[in-house]
Amino acid sequence: MVDTPKPAETAKIDHYPSLFEKGWMNQKVEIRPGIYCYGSKPKNLEYVGMPYPKEWNPSDEDWQLPENWKEIIEEGFKDRLDKFRSLKLFMDICVRCGACADKCHFFIGSGDPKNMPVMRAELLRSVYRKNHTIGGKILGPFAGARELTEDVLKEWWYYLYQCTECRRCSLFCPYGIDTAEVTIIGRELTNLLGLNPDWIAAPVANCYRTGNHLGIQPHAFKDMLEFFTDEIEDLTGIRMEQDFNRKGAEVLFVTPSGDVFADPGTFTCMGYMMLFHYLKEQGLDITWSTYASEGGNFGYFTSHEMAKRLNAKMYAEAKRLGVKWILGGECGHMWRVVNQYMETFNGPPDFLEEPVSPITGTKFENATATKMVHIIEFTADLMKHNKLKLDPSRNDHLKVTFHDSCNTARGMGFLEEPRYVIKNVCNNFYEMPPETIREQTFCCGSGSGLNAGENMELRMRGGLPRANAVKYVHEKHDVNMLACICAIDRAVLPNAMEYWVPGVDVTGIHEMVANALVFDGEKKRTTDLRAEPLPGMEDEEDV
Amino acid sequence: MNFVLSILFSSFAVIVVVLIPWIGVGALDLRILFGIIIPYAAMATFIVGIVVRVIDWSRSPVPFRIPTTAGQEWSFPWIKSNPIDNPKGTGGVVIRMIFEVLTFRSLFRNTRLEYRRIDGVPKIDYEWEKWLWVAALLFHYSFLVIVLRHFRFFTEPVPGFVTLLQNLDGFMQMGAAPFNGFGLPGVYLTDMLLMAAVTWLLLRRILYSQMRYVSLPADYFPLFLIIALGFSGMLMRYLFRVDVTSVKELAIGLFKFSPVSPEGIGVIFYIHLFILCVLIAYFPFSKLMHLAGIFLSPTRNLANNSRFVRHVNPWNYPVQTHTYDEYEDEFRDKMIEAGLPVEKQAESTADTEEKE
Fold it and tell me: Fewest beta carbons within 10 Å, which of A194, A221, A475, B336?
């Protein structure tokens, strides 16, 4: 692993390609350490039956491609043109107006011209033109067409895994061309040759086998939550036991496994657990599952098919347990998949019922087909009906801003609900500049399976636009907490903050909810979930 | 291919396009070819080409409902949703599409990156940038008005709205020196706007380094072609007057499918007509198809409602999954030991006891 350059070094970015470039088609790709992720281990591809497993390293000259690799890609490309109108259209109608060029966090953070969204798509378009258009066949480079070669394939790979499928470019495109769609399908093509980063392939294999990306086995999953139960008991004096794999529960809860595994996601997880316990007496009948123990879906970063294969267990488990509906945790791409794919992939879930909150009686009209409710919606509804006793002053040590996750913002439009919940549980909330939030939000820079360690330079570059906006509110309003509703955000933004904006921490929203939640008979809280003293309690000894 | 080569290649192609009718009519007097056959062929290519392309696009299904949501979704009654930028049904989609097609709403969002470093610390701003939107809007609407104005050549009697448009378009500039002082006809506002917008669209491609980097010959060629089209049209109107009566005779003949080839129309007209023919014949094979494509774009023309309205993928196929039974088979012992409920008890309790 290479050392990540210092921020001042990384910040030397030139966004203006020089006057006399020899033309992008003539520039051979240089696969730089710190930018790319390691290649997939054969065992991870074998476990899920993906083709051409092998030991390989993207920096090798020889990628050990099968002899007929070109045929495989060209067949695969053609097949997808016939299956996805999006791809066909997006290959044809771009006018290269440049509106998307400076909208990508990776271009802003790297200045690499091939990170302009238009270029990412042009890398594929050029080959498309060569094989599928008359002009491209006759005029070649004069029609923007080029032959598919090994170097072109490597260039595809290098840049397809420098896109987090955040869709910010698609917002600005006058034709709605969505680079995420191009990347998703482009990655499917690389997977036909066994060229997945291991950081994606390993979670996929894990998830397939153990139910979650981190490979947590059932007993360990239970152990981890029991550990949190102990922590919560220390904090509140109340034992908040959770149910696992319980048949006949009304609701199944599914959240990204990152919440179970690493700080600060764990505090969000404790937040869910405390909320569930709080609502138990009011009639919430909910269970966790060790089998459907992953809301996230790294299959979605591999291929549509793999996304469907991993997603299937949510409905399968809901059916087996006989629950009425599913509640989903705070996660970004999980909710893109739930909102825009799940019911089409694996529906209709006619064994479930249209979700109704057992506490408020609210019918979730916007989830009547998927039968799956976002926990932020669920909590917002509770708050609207005054079902939670809250003491927002317990979050007074936090000055909070909210990072809209790209997937929930541009793949769902989930903008107000999280803000409503935040405003109910904390008194100091400040928005970042409007060009960096809501539908215009910036990616964390490490989404879509790029949250590995070996590509830290890329991640810090991609995280720069988000960090820069946080820095603005950090300096102006003294903001010290970045709230988000995405497990990948929680996993990666702490790095980006430490690198670009030291002094800002990262939290999920339900961690703040749990801080503020007042339980009957709890002991006086002196610290928050992170065991940091509450405002005014700095001197109190924690007994 | 660098930008110099791209520009040279495209401008060379346009020069050839201009020379062909110049020689063809000017020297060889092939009026029937350039006045009748090529226009029909171009028109046929245009219409058939577009239809074929749109059918070809439509043959590929839309497996998933993937709108780019640009505003608050529809959820609780007490949360204000944005029915246009995040439509929940057909009505909202129609409005979104109308805004997109008629006002270029997405392009209106455009901003410009302003990247600075102050003492080594990056500072990023997103500046106001509506020029691309302004130029695009002016360009497309001027083009539309110009096309509509041309109806006076193909129709007899000329429809009222064409005359009105013509008067409005001309009125704006009427008497505006210096042109009138030289005895020229009233200048059309849209002629000026179109040329200005096209020039700006070309200049930004060449002057902005990011644009220069992404631009292909296929971007310069239509711009040069449109500049040549506008320029030849303006030359005809303002400098080398042609016999409008004969032009109209030819045009009406073409549209009534009883073509005639009147004499005495200047070569400049045939050049103008041929450039137009090339443009429309090129249209279905080029990026200009964005005109039709926008209507089919799945990130814009779909409602964000797949959580409450089922969307069917026509090629959805069964996939291999790792079932709960397989999962329990692997982890059963550990699950039992951890006190997790299982479907099947351990296979033979006797064996386990023996081992112990």
Answer: A475
